[in-house]
Amino acid sequence: MRSDVLADHMLRGFYIGRFQPYHDGHHRMVERIAGEVDELVLGIGSADDSHTRHDPFTAGERIMMLTKALEDADLVIYPVPIEDLDRNAVWVSHVQSMSPTFEIAYSNNPLVVQLFTEAGVEVRQSPMFDRERLEGTEIRERMIADDGWEALVPDAVVDVVEEIDGIERIQRVSETDGADSYRADTTADPE
After folding, report:
1. Alpha-carbon span 161 to 130, nearest angstrom
2. Global pTM?
Protein backbone atom coordinates (compact mmCIF):
# COMPACT_ATOMS: atom_id res chain seq x y z
CA MET A 1 0.00 0.00 0.00
CA ARG A 2 1.04 3.59 -0.47
CA SER A 3 2.69 5.08 2.58
CA ASP A 4 1.23 8.57 2.00
CA VAL A 5 -2.42 7.51 2.33
CA LEU A 6 -4.66 10.10 3.85
CA ALA A 7 -7.17 8.62 6.27
CA ASP A 8 -10.11 10.03 4.30
CA HIS A 9 -8.94 9.30 0.75
CA MET A 10 -8.05 5.92 -0.63
CA LEU A 11 -6.65 5.80 -4.14
CA ARG A 12 -8.34 3.18 -6.31
CA GLY A 13 -7.09 1.89 -9.63
CA PHE A 14 -8.64 -0.16 -12.43
CA TYR A 15 -6.88 -2.90 -14.41
CA ILE A 16 -8.70 -4.85 -17.11
CA GLY A 17 -7.79 -8.10 -18.76
CA ARG A 18 -9.51 -11.22 -19.99
CA PHE A 19 -7.44 -13.31 -17.54
CA GLN A 20 -7.85 -16.43 -19.71
CA PRO A 21 -6.17 -17.59 -17.47
CA TYR A 22 -4.79 -15.21 -14.83
CA HIS A 23 -1.02 -15.71 -15.22
CA ASP A 24 2.30 -14.61 -13.75
CA GLY A 25 2.48 -11.57 -16.07
CA HIS A 26 -0.86 -10.33 -14.71
CA HIS A 27 0.33 -11.15 -11.19
CA ARG A 28 3.50 -9.08 -11.57
CA MET A 29 1.44 -6.19 -12.97
CA VAL A 30 -0.89 -6.31 -9.94
CA GLU A 31 2.13 -6.37 -7.62
CA ARG A 32 3.48 -3.27 -9.39
CA ILE A 33 0.13 -1.48 -9.20
CA ALA A 34 -0.09 -2.32 -5.48
CA GLY A 35 2.74 0.13 -4.87
CA GLU A 36 0.69 2.95 -6.38
CA VAL A 37 -2.89 2.46 -5.14
CA ASP A 38 -4.72 1.31 -2.03
CA GLU A 39 -7.48 -0.61 -3.79
CA LEU A 40 -7.73 -2.21 -7.22
CA VAL A 41 -10.71 -3.01 -9.38
CA LEU A 42 -9.87 -5.96 -11.61
CA GLY A 43 -12.11 -5.74 -14.67
CA ILE A 44 -12.71 -9.22 -16.06
CA GLY A 45 -13.08 -8.44 -19.74
CA SER A 46 -15.23 -10.49 -22.11
CA ALA A 47 -17.12 -11.73 -19.07
CA ASP A 48 -19.89 -13.00 -21.33
CA ASP A 49 -17.55 -15.36 -23.22
CA SER A 50 -16.52 -18.86 -22.16
CA HIS A 51 -16.09 -22.42 -23.37
CA THR A 52 -14.05 -21.53 -26.47
CA ARG A 53 -10.38 -21.98 -27.31
CA HIS A 54 -9.91 -18.20 -27.03
CA ASP A 55 -12.01 -17.81 -23.85
CA PRO A 56 -12.21 -21.19 -22.09
CA PHE A 57 -13.06 -20.01 -18.58
CA THR A 58 -16.25 -18.41 -17.25
CA ALA A 59 -16.27 -15.06 -15.47
CA GLY A 60 -16.97 -16.88 -12.19
CA GLU A 61 -13.99 -19.18 -12.69
CA ARG A 62 -11.76 -16.20 -13.44
CA ILE A 63 -13.04 -14.49 -10.27
CA MET A 64 -11.96 -17.62 -8.37
CA MET A 65 -8.51 -17.50 -10.00
CA LEU A 66 -8.01 -13.83 -9.13
CA THR A 67 -9.40 -14.05 -5.62
CA LYS A 68 -7.37 -17.11 -4.65
CA ALA A 69 -4.15 -15.91 -6.32
CA LEU A 70 -4.41 -12.52 -4.59
CA GLU A 71 -5.70 -13.54 -1.16
CA ASP A 72 -2.39 -12.53 0.47
CA ALA A 73 -2.00 -9.29 -1.49
CA ASP A 74 -1.43 -6.10 0.49
CA LEU A 75 -4.23 -4.53 -1.48
CA VAL A 76 -8.02 -4.55 -1.46
CA ILE A 77 -9.19 -6.23 -4.66
CA TYR A 78 -12.60 -5.92 -6.34
CA PRO A 79 -13.03 -8.40 -9.24
CA VAL A 80 -15.78 -7.06 -11.53
CA PRO A 81 -17.08 -8.87 -14.62
CA ILE A 82 -17.26 -6.58 -17.65
CA GLU A 83 -19.29 -7.86 -20.61
CA ASP A 84 -18.35 -6.84 -24.13
CA LEU A 85 -20.34 -4.00 -25.67
CA ASP A 86 -18.84 -3.78 -29.16
CA ARG A 87 -19.47 -0.02 -28.99
CA ASN A 88 -16.19 1.68 -28.22
CA ALA A 89 -17.67 5.19 -27.89
CA VAL A 90 -19.59 4.17 -24.74
CA TRP A 91 -17.22 1.51 -23.40
CA VAL A 92 -15.66 3.64 -20.63
CA SER A 93 -19.05 4.69 -19.27
CA HIS A 94 -20.08 1.01 -19.35
CA VAL A 95 -16.96 0.05 -17.37
CA GLN A 96 -17.57 2.87 -14.89
CA SER A 97 -21.19 1.82 -14.42
CA MET A 98 -20.11 -1.72 -13.53
CA SER A 99 -17.22 -0.78 -11.21
CA PRO A 100 -16.53 1.01 -7.97
CA THR A 101 -15.27 4.53 -8.68
CA PHE A 102 -11.58 4.64 -9.64
CA GLU A 103 -9.08 7.41 -10.32
CA ILE A 104 -6.44 5.64 -12.44
CA ALA A 105 -6.73 3.04 -15.20
CA TYR A 106 -3.86 0.67 -15.99
CA SER A 107 -3.51 -0.75 -19.48
CA ASN A 108 -1.05 -1.30 -22.29
CA ASN A 109 -3.77 -1.88 -24.88
CA PRO A 110 -3.67 1.10 -27.28
CA LEU A 111 -7.46 1.19 -27.75
CA VAL A 112 -8.15 1.01 -24.01
CA VAL A 113 -5.56 3.75 -23.37
CA GLN A 114 -7.21 5.93 -26.04
CA LEU A 115 -10.74 5.40 -24.74
CA PHE A 116 -9.86 6.15 -21.11
CA THR A 117 -7.79 9.18 -22.14
CA GLU A 118 -10.66 10.59 -24.21
CA ALA A 119 -12.94 10.11 -21.19
CA GLY A 120 -10.56 12.12 -19.00
CA VAL A 121 -9.31 9.17 -16.91
CA GLU A 122 -5.61 9.08 -16.01
CA VAL A 123 -3.98 6.06 -17.66
CA ARG A 124 -0.71 4.48 -16.60
CA GLN A 125 1.17 1.93 -18.64
CA SER A 126 3.87 -0.48 -17.59
CA PRO A 127 6.45 -2.69 -19.20
CA MET A 128 5.30 -6.17 -20.15
CA PHE A 129 6.73 -8.97 -18.05
CA ASP A 130 8.40 -11.82 -19.99
CA ARG A 131 5.83 -11.33 -22.75
CA GLU A 132 7.17 -14.17 -24.92
CA ARG A 133 6.20 -16.77 -22.31
CA LEU A 134 3.63 -14.91 -20.21
CA GLU A 135 1.02 -14.43 -22.87
CA GLY A 136 -2.47 -15.90 -22.73
CA THR A 137 -2.42 -17.50 -26.17
CA GLU A 138 0.87 -19.27 -25.39
CA ILE A 139 -0.44 -20.48 -22.04
CA ARG A 140 -3.71 -21.73 -23.55
CA GLU A 141 -1.76 -23.60 -26.25
CA ARG A 142 0.32 -25.22 -23.52
CA MET A 143 -2.90 -26.13 -21.70
CA ILE A 144 -4.27 -27.78 -24.84
CA ALA A 145 -1.04 -29.80 -25.09
CA ASP A 146 -1.04 -30.22 -21.27
CA ASP A 147 2.62 -29.27 -21.39
CA GLY A 148 4.32 -26.94 -18.93
CA TRP A 149 1.57 -24.38 -18.42
CA GLU A 150 1.60 -24.73 -14.62
CA ALA A 151 4.94 -22.91 -14.30
CA LEU A 152 3.44 -19.79 -15.92
CA VAL A 153 0.52 -19.20 -13.54
CA PRO A 154 0.21 -18.77 -9.76
CA ASP A 155 -0.27 -22.04 -7.83
CA ALA A 156 -3.80 -20.96 -6.90
CA VAL A 157 -4.71 -20.80 -10.61
CA VAL A 158 -3.40 -24.34 -11.12
CA ASP A 159 -5.69 -25.42 -8.27
CA VAL A 160 -8.73 -23.72 -9.83
CA VAL A 161 -8.03 -25.18 -13.28
CA GLU A 162 -7.75 -28.64 -11.72
CA GLU A 163 -10.93 -28.13 -9.67
CA ILE A 164 -13.00 -27.24 -12.75
CA ASP A 165 -11.29 -29.84 -14.98
CA GLY A 166 -10.18 -26.93 -17.17
CA ILE A 167 -7.59 -28.86 -19.18
CA GLU A 168 -10.18 -31.34 -20.41
CA ARG A 169 -12.49 -28.44 -21.25
CA ILE A 170 -9.98 -26.44 -23.28
CA GLN A 171 -8.85 -29.59 -25.08
CA ARG A 172 -12.43 -30.50 -25.95
CA VAL A 173 -13.52 -27.03 -27.09
CA SER A 174 -10.35 -26.72 -29.17
CA GLU A 175 -11.31 -29.69 -31.31
CA THR A 176 -12.70 -28.37 -34.54
CA ASP A 177 -15.79 -29.37 -36.43
CA GLY A 178 -15.09 -26.80 -39.12
CA ALA A 179 -17.08 -24.04 -37.41
CA ASP A 180 -15.32 -20.87 -36.33
CA SER A 181 -16.08 -20.26 -32.63
CA TYR A 182 -13.50 -17.49 -32.19
CA ARG A 183 -14.86 -14.00 -31.47
CA ALA A 184 -12.39 -11.13 -31.35
CA ASP A 185 -12.39 -8.83 -28.33
CA THR A 186 -11.29 -5.31 -29.16
CA THR A 187 -12.24 -3.61 -25.92
CA ALA A 188 -10.16 -5.39 -23.31
CA ASP A 189 -6.46 -5.99 -22.94
CA PRO A 190 -5.63 -8.89 -25.24
CA GLU A 191 -4.59 -11.07 -22.32
Report:
1. 22
2. 0.84
